[in-house]
Design goal:
CATH architecture of the largest domain in chain A: 3-Layer(aba) Sandwich
Distance between the termini of chain A: 85 Å
Largest sheet of chain A: 6 strands, parallel
CATH topology of the largest domain in chain A: Rossmann fold
Order of helices and strands of chain A: HHHHEHEHEHEEHEHEHEHEEHEEH
Oligomer: homodimer
Number of strands of chain A: 12
CATH superfamily of the largest domain in chain A: Response regulator
Strand order of the largest sheet of chain A: 2-1-3-4-5-11
Helix content of chain A: 40-55%
Largest interface: A-B, 59 and 59 residues
Shape of chain A: elongated
Structural class of chain A: alpha/beta
Chain lengths: 351, 351
DNA sequence: GTGGTCTACCCAAACGTTTGGGTAGCACTG
DNA sequence: CAGTGCTACCCAAACGTTTGGGTAGACCAC
């Protein structure tokens, strides 16, 4: 009578059992474990009959019933600053794929990098009884993480790291170093950094890697040449304007720790009538799909975003098995494009 | 002995009942319904004691247990072509917020616009027993949708529409018309359209709106000036190259039905030494956050993406109540920027 | 003092699984 | 032929809720 979605979809273990004249537990065991537990639960013949009927009736186990009993939901909670940040969206795609492969489903929520929202979203996920959390918006001060540890909530970090906790990230220090090496080699001696948000390891590590390598190459750079900013385009533009209007000698190259910030900085340069790549080199980070397609293609550090997401799933899986996995840092690669190579190219052409 | 996440988190209805010397069902009724059913279930005094203890013990109901009983999971499944498409990511943010407000949680998966994946992902969501689906990747041929209807699966469309099904979209026809009107007014007479994927209503409607208005204004445009393409930057670039190398007179304006495609087209123009805005006007669609921040800011039709997501949640809510809601089309707004206004500005300046 | 109407609860069954612990029957073994 | 060890099952309880249907007692009216 009910017109709910039961167009045959609601066939239960019990139904199968009744139809086969066998006990539900037998059906469960057969369908449950590939063949490890199945052996000993039923004869090969019965097992086949069970599987056959299950297929025929389109049986699909009820996950809520199962988790009620097993106390595991096969649900993963993912918290990100915002999904509309392309970088996090791609990491989430990696999570989505990888978790499906191991029989988990992922849930994602935005925290907007606001500590209250982080807490609220985590509580929402725990209320849904997720088995574990993948946290993509960790702040370096990490009070929340300690709290989660105390509450014995299984979690791993992704994208940003905090020492002492398992995490899947890009090796951002190396990424920063790559940029410093590149710009130095291109002959730049006066540079500025758009450093991102100081609470994010991505920003801090990329900046630190850059500065360390820069100085070890013999370069000088003062703290005034490092501007912290939001990760988005508007933040990059503001930071770019600040750099250009500082009254200090204009840098010949700018490293923005994020492609969007780099795009914003390009806007600021252009607004001053400066040509990106010729007057001022710009380098971004993440190599988002846009970087290569911009009117002036952007040199950027490629970070394996989808793989970071996939790795995070492996890590949380390990945590759920009771292990204490080490942080994983994936290798970045520098892609040099016109935004930092145009001048060299122009000089070549001049010869 | 178990070291699971039960740091007090696992307090059940039964625990509360025992501690209060009252029956679990009483506790359930008190905590369940704000005050409608609660009245009659317990005295005001008892109700208060229950609520008090629940708060004190940090009681949080087990959703799987509840849905096992109620046959409703309060879960919404969302299917999008890809979450790394900024447009869909923002719509999803709207869904996420709106669904949380009504006590639902949303799940999202990518289909990559591949019919097999669409089907697979839908099955995954139904296996998770979502109460309803929000489909963001509907194809105009809509075989899948008919199938879902037959299976009595509650769903609504978002982003793209298909006649006959409830949907939350931007009024893309009007959006296309706005662009035609703008370009015509700017004096363009030779234009081309990068039309997107022919299976998506967004592409078809925007293109149709543009063409209809263009012709009704007296403009002419041949089918050869309409190139179908992928929605991403690379697709836009290819389409742009095709337009420029067609041997036909070069258009003075290009309308790409998607910002990313527009950016790709800008790349193609630039590669030919043409200046966007001066030599060729470019207009995009969606007004993604990048549009305004590009080196040459992009004229774009703003579509209220987050609101579309929120609306989709309202619609599925209605469907779940057994209603048959009408499609909702939200108003687009044209934002004129340098990519289509530079020439006019330059001419002004010349006087 | 019987009948009726409330109030404030309690009871028990159900939802669909999983899982520890049987056990009946059979084949061997010594 | 008692004992041992399989195999191939069955049984029942449990997981944490929700909900239709009681019912005991209080109060009131007639």
């Amino acid at each position: 009578m009910k017109e709910k979605a039961d167009g045959g979809g609601t066939v239960t273990l019990k139904d199968l059992a009744r139809e086969l004249g066998v006990h539900p537990s037998t059906v469960s065991r057969v369908l449950h474990s590939g063949s490890d537990v199945a052996k000993g639960a039923a004869s090969a013949a019965t097992a086949e009959r069970v599987r056959e009927l299950a297929r025929k009736r389109g049986y699909s186990p009820d996950p809520q019933a199962a988790s009620l009993r097993t106390r595991r939901t096969k649900l993963l909670g993912v918290i990100v600053p915002r999904l509309s940040d392309l970088v996090l969206a791609i990491m989430y795609e990696g999570i989505d794929e990888a978790s499906a492969e191991v029989g988990y489903s992922a849930f994602v929520m935005n925290s907007r990098d606001d500590p209250n929202e982080q807490r609220r979203k985590i509580d929402l996920m725990l209320a849904r009884r997720v088995d574990g959390l993948i946290i993509g918006d960790a702040h370096l001060d990490g009070g929340l993480l300690q709290e989660l540890t105390d509450r014995k909530v299984p979690f791993v970090l992704m994208n940003r790291r905090v020492t002492g906790y398992p995490s899947a990230t890009c090796d951002d220090v190396v990424g920063g170093e790559l940029v410093a090496g590149h710009l130095w080699k291109m002959g730049h001696r006066q540079v500025a950094v758009i450093a991102g948000e100081p609470y994010a390891s991505t920003a801090v590590d990329r900046t630190a890697g850059f500065l360390d390598r820069w100085r070890s190459l013999g370069g000088t750079i003062s703290d005034d040449d490092v501007v912290w900013s939001r990760f988005d385009t508007a933040g990059g533009r503001e930071a770019g304007e600040k750099i250009l209007s500082s009254g200090r000698p204009r840098p010949t190259a700018i490293f923005a720790v994020n492609d969007f910030a780099a795009i914003g900085a390009m806007g600021a340069l252009r607004a001053r009538g400066l040509t990106v790549g010729l007057d001022v080199a710009v380098v971004g980070y993440n190599d988002t799909s846009l970087a290569a397609e911009l009117p002036i293609p952007l040199t950027s550090v490629h970070s394996p975003m989808a793989d970071i997401g996939r790795t995070a799933v492996q890590l949380i899986q390990a945590v759920l098995r009771g292990e204490k996995p080490e942080p994983v840092q994936l290798e970045p690669t520098l892609f040099v494009r016109e935004s930092s190579a145009a001048r060299a190219a122009a000089e070549m052409a001049a010869n």
